[in-house]
Amino acid sequence: MSITKELIDRINYLSRKSRTPEGLTEEEKAEQARVRREYVDAIKARVKDTLDRVEIVDADQIASTAAPQKADGQRGAGASVTGQGHRCGCPTCNAKSGERLH
């Protein structure tokens, strides 16, 4: 099930026609309900697919794996002493002091 231009055009046509003085026939009302349901189901499927691909990572896990300690006790390149970011110049690293965004 996918959202095609034809599906959207049909939804829009039936919506416009429903606001005219002649309105929709019973068959068109049934079709309108069907195409709207098809559209909503396609959107739900896309959202579900997107959420199925999302990987949630613990922020503390990122901090501990992003800059592992070297054998001599020094942190890896790009790590901050406080562990509050890698100071790359990205908006997250340039946040006001005290804000921890990553």
From TrEMBL:
Keywords: Cytoplasm. The keyword Cytoplasm applies. Its main location: cytoplasm. The keyword Hydrolase does not apply. Pfam families: DUF896. Gene3D superfamilies: Helix hairpin bin (1.10.287.540). It is found in: Cytoplasm. One of its GO terms (cellular component) is cytoplasm. It comes from the Bacteria. Residues 64-102 are annotated as: Disordered. Belongs to the UPF0291 family. This is UPF0291 protein HM1_2796. It comes from Heliobacterium modesticaldum (strain ATCC 51547 / Ice1).
